[in-house]
Specification:
The two termini are 41 Å apart. The mean pLDDT is 96. The chain contains eleven helices and 28 strands. The protein has a five-stranded parallel beta sheet. Helices cover 22% and strands 32% of the residues.
C-alpha cells in the first residue's frame, strides 16, 4: 500500500514517536502531525514529579521536526473523521479546517475525568495543567486531592514536600485499590502518614464547590486548592460517527490496524488485541505507547507486525520506586517477598504455579527478572520466591 500523505493525530509520546519512526523507516511523502496542544510534543511522566516540583521546566522531545520534514499543526483539535467509501483515506476535520489523508495514525490519548460542581478543580494531564498548579503549592496551603491512585500519590508527594497541608480523599477502602486491590493497596497507606498527609479512605466526593469539596455524607471540606485525580478516559468521542469500531478505545488488531488498514491506533486511545491475554487491552502507560510506536509505523507501511507486550509501569511516591509488570486478573494466589513494613518488598500474583504479575517497592532487580520471565512464560518455586534473600531469577523456572 502506497500512502502519499499520512496524518498523525495526537502530539503525545505515541504520536510523536510514530511520526519519527515513519521517517526512520524511509517514508518520504507528506507527513503531518496534528496536536490539540500549543506545545511541541513533550514527555509526560515528569509532569507529576520534577516539573510539578519546579526542578525541570521543559520536557520537549529533542526532535528537529523541520529537518525531518514533519509539518506540526499545533493548537488544532480533531473534531470528526470521514473515511472514503471505496478508496483508502479520507478527510480529517479539525478546528482549523479539513485535511485529506491517505494514511492515518490515531494517537489522541486520554482525557482526565472531572467532578461536577462550580468550584475550581485542577487536573494533572498536560504541561499547562502542571504550570497552573505549581505556583499554588506553597507552605501552609491546604490542598484537597481526590483520588489515591498513581497520579494522586505522586501529586501528594510533591505537595507535602512543598509544605502544603494535604488531605487525600479516596472512595475505595485503600489507595491503589483499582490497580492492585484493597489488601495490597492498604500496605501503602502508612506512606501517607509518614509524609504528613491526611489520607481518608472510604470517603466519596460528590462535587467541587467554591472553597472546597462536598462529600457524599453531606460534609463540606474547605480547601485552598482542589486537585482531582480519579482516572482518565480515552479521547475517542470525536470518532463516534467515523464508522470505526469503538469499545472504550479504538478497536485494533494485534498489528494495531483498524478494520481499515490505512488507519492505525495506539497509546491511551487504542484497545488492542492481545493474544497473550486473550482480550482487547487498553493500557494507559508510557511504556506500552513507546513500544507500540515503532510497530504502528511499520504496520501502516504494510509490514507484518505483532504488538503484544507485557504491560509495565512505574511510580515514584513518598521516596519509593514502585513498579508493576504483567496483568494479575485471574490470579488465585498472592505471594509476598519481604514485609510491607520494610523499605523493600514485592508481591507476586500467580495462577496455580504460573506467574501473572509482580509489584515491587524499591526492588528493581526483582522487577527486571520477573519482566523477562513473564515475556517468555514461567512457573514459580514458592519457597524460593517467598525468601527475599533469594534472587528472584532463581525462583522463576521455565514451564
Amino acid at each position: 500500500m502506497t500512502l502519499d500523505n499520512i496524518l498523525v493525530v495526537g502530539g503525545g509520546l505515541a504520536g510523536a514517536h510514530v511520526a519519527t519512526a515513519l521517517r526512520a523507516r524511509g517514508y518520504r511523502n507528506a507527513l503531518t502531525l496534528v496536536s490539540a496542544e500549543h506545545h511541541r510534543p513533550y514527555d509526560r511522566p515528569p509532569l507529576t514529579k520534577s516539573v510539578l516540583a519546579g526542578d525541570v521546566a521543559d520536557t520537549s522531545f529533542p526532535t528537529d521536526w523541520a529537518d525531518l520534514g514533519i509539518d506540526l499543526r499545533l493548537g488544532e483539535r480533531a473534531e470528526a473523521l470521514d473515511l472514503h467509501d471505496r478508496l483508502p483515506g479520507g478527510i480529517l476535520k479539525t478546528t482549523a479546517g479539513a485535511l485529506t489523508f491517505g494514511g492515518l495514525v490515531l494517537a489522541t490519548g486520554a482525557e482526565p475525568v472531572r467532578l461536577p460542581g462550580e468550584g475550581q478543580q485542577h487536573v494533572v494531564r498536560t504541561v499547562d495543567d502542571v504550570r497552573a498548579l505549581h505556583p499554588l503549592l506553597r507552605p501552609g496551603t491546604h490542598l484537597a486531592l481526590v483520588g489515591a491512585g498513581w497520579i494522586g500519590a505522586e501529586v501528594a508527594t510533591v505537595a507535602a514536600a512543598k509544605g502544603c497541608r494535604v488531605t487525600v480523599l479516596e472512595a475505595d477502602r485503600a489507595p491503589l485499590t483499582a490497580a492492585v486491590g484493597a489488601r495490597i493497596g492498604a500496605w501503602t497507606a502508612p506512606w501517607y502518614a509518614e509524609a504528613g498527609v491526611d489520607l481518608r479512605c472510604g470517603t466519596a466526593v460528590t462535587s467541587v464547590d467554591p472553597g472546597g469539596l462536598r462529600l457524599a455524607d453531606g460534609e463540606f471540606l474547605a480547601a485552598d486548592v482542589v486537585v482531582v485525580g480519579i482516572g482518565a478516559r480515552p479521547s475517542v468521542g470525536w470518532l463516534e460517527d467515523s464508522g470505526l469500531e469503538i469499545a472504550r478505545g479504538v478497536v485494533v488488531d494485534d498489528s494495531l490496524r483498524t478494520a481499515r488498514p490505512e488507519v492505525v491506533a495506539l497509546g491511551d486511545c487504542a484497545a488492542w488485541w492481545s493474544k497473550r491475554y486473550g482480550r482487547h487491552m487498553v493500557v494507559e502507560h508510557w511504556d506500552t505507547a513507546l513500544k507500540a510506536s515503532e510497530l504502528a509505523a511499520a504496520s501502516l507501511l504494510g509490514e507484518d507486525v505483532c504488538h503484544d507486550p507485557v504491560p509495565y509501569f512505574w511510580s515514584e511516591q513518598f521516596g519509593r520506586m514502585v513498579q508493576y509488570t504483567g496483568a494479575h486478573q485471574g490470579a488465585d494466589q498472592v505471594v509476598l517477598r519481604g514485609s510491607p513494613e520494610d523499605t523493600e518488598w514485592a508481591v507476586l500474583w500467580l495462577a496455580g504455579d504460573r506467574l501473572l504479575a509482580i509489584l515491587t517497592v524499591n526492588r528493581p532487580r526483582d522487577l527486571v527478572q520477573a519482566r523477562r520471565a513473564l515475556t517468555a512464560g514461567c512457573v514459580v518455586d514458592l519457597p524460593a520466591a517467598t525468601d527475599p534473600g533469594t534472587a528472584l531469577r532463581d525462583a522463576l523456572l521455565a514451564p
